[in-house]
Amino acid sequence: MRNSLNDPVALTGMGIVSNQGVGCSASWRSITNAQEHLAPWQQPCEPKLAGINVAQTPPLPRPNDLPPALWNSLAGTQRLAAIAADEALRMASLPTRPKRRPVPIALFMATTVCGMDLTEQFYRQYRQQRQTADIALLKRVHPFEINVLLAHRHRLTGPRWLCMSTCVSSAMAIGAAVDSIRTGQANIALAGGAEALCEVVLSGFSALKLVAPAGCTPFAAGRRGITVGEGSAVLVLESLASAAARGVQPLAYIRGVGMTCDAYHITGPEPTGAQPMAAMHQALRQAAMCPDDIGYVNAHGTGTRDNDAMEARALSTVFGSRTQPFISSTKRLTGHTFAAAGAIETVITAMALQQDVLPANAGAPLADPALGVNVIAQPTARHVEHALTCNFAFGGNNTAIVISRGTGRTWETL
Length: 414
Fold this sequence. Notes:
It is built from 12 helices and 15 strands.
């Protein structure tokens, strides 16, 4: 059934894995206490990278249906996505491993590093003893292996789609899922992203001098760069009619999605923030809202000088001289999870709306006065109806998503 192109889309399930914990409950407890778990990476790496703090996930529980040998052979992105998808499906009251499904479910996922951790493992073996290096490690390097695993485990027979647009990838996956539901191509979709730590990413950002060794400080005057992280988040999205027919109350609603491109530089943001502003306005128009309706912004807030300055300029312009919404970046807590960032921050924002608590701008309770934005110094109790999440990426890609609180059901009541 074709829906209105501006209909809200129901968020009926969500799963999350990050440095803050495995699952929504553990993650939310840590986030609302602004707990930092940054530490030097525990994997073999170049000596110059050994002292850099990263945001690693806790140990992951192995799903019962995946034998140890298979589980250990998976790329890190696959393991992270498997855990997040399981939680999302259970929360949406959908069976995780049915023999068949009465309604096809579409799949929209995102990654950037794919199976790079396995590639690095292979080349470490190859340098040490090329004759015994395990070539089978390279079998799961292809980025689409995430979709293969999830589709096979969960019998997802709808359209499959994968995005690799770096830091906006999973936000774009959410946007594509919303479009598929609004146009009637799908009634239910899984959307999200997964990213695992690897030396290529850490060394690449270190070479660009964009890594803050002790941890990022978004919007702070002394900000030095990003914290590299890993994680996954998966959302179950469906039409209002589908959710009603299944008797499932929405946890939240996706009301609008905006996407633009700077067409300016491969790594640096265009300083005026014109296209990020355009993405925010797109999302607001699609949601039939104005800036005054937004009570909280989960900012991209990477902690780099150029990105934070551009984002602050864009937010100040969009929200004007009126009272700004509450603003925070959660990347000091989760790390920058690149392709997974949009989905992780959408889940965090949905939890904030449900629980009436807004996350702190961890690592930097006071913003640089030159930026003109007021960040949340500590977790703040506040009832907010509508929120905005923003993500920006290499290549000048920009996304904005408008999220509204749901009907009262939360993951805590399941």
